[in-house]
Known about the structure:
single chain, 3 helices, mainly alpha
Amino acid sequence: MGIVVFILWLVLAFVVANGAANRGRSFGGFLALSILFSPLIGAFILFVLGEKK
């Protein structure tokens, strides 16, 4: 069960990082943020920051 949670965590972290890259933000930065803290926190921060101009 633990490995499933770990894989899901990584997949969601990559989804958030890809969303960040599409909005002009750092892929690596948001990937690290999402892996270290939570993909939910990473997605929330990305939502608050919005698209880079």
